[in-house]
Amino acid sequence: MSYELSFSEDFFTGYPDGEIGGDDIHNLYPVSSRPQCVVQALVSLEALEPAEFQEMVKEALGYSLDAGQPADETVFLELLEKVREYSICDTLTPPIQVYVCEGCYVTVYEDTEEEVE
Predict the structure, then answer these.
(1) Is-contact 114 33, C-beta < 8 A?
(2) How far is it, in rounded angstroms, from Cα 61 to Cα 4?
(3) Where are the domains of the chain?
């Protein structure tokens, strides 16, 4: 069963106002195996599963990134917009699989009990 996304801005960006702010998104969102918001989940996916992240970008955005180069803030903002447009998750309680497009998703957790890298 799937659900429409109906969460606060904090769920998407980690900030109540929904603004990401800043140029270096990689410093704003530490890599975690238990990300607490959608943007942190995307940043973590890029760091922990780069091939999967590349495939997600290609599938959801229709272009490829330069191999070995970290994605800039624009890529993450475009992916976040796709999440909002697609607006589907698998459950309403954590951990929540949030879909970027059909077949591409990230998982958001309630807490970071595991290590942050």
Answers:
(1) yes
(2) 21
(3) 3-108
Longest dimension (CA), the chain: 37
SS3 per residue for 12-59: HHCCCCCCCCCCCHHHHCCCECCCCCHHHHHHHHHHHCHHHHHHHHHH
Condensed to tens digits (0 to 9), the pLDDT of residues 58-114 reads 999 999 999 888 899 999 999 999 999 999 999 989 999 999 999 999 999 987 554
Q: CA-CA distances (angstroms) from residue 112 to 33, 42, 46, 105?
A: 8, 16, 18, 19
Contact assessment for residue 36 and residue 112, using Cβ atoms and an 8 Å cutoff: yes
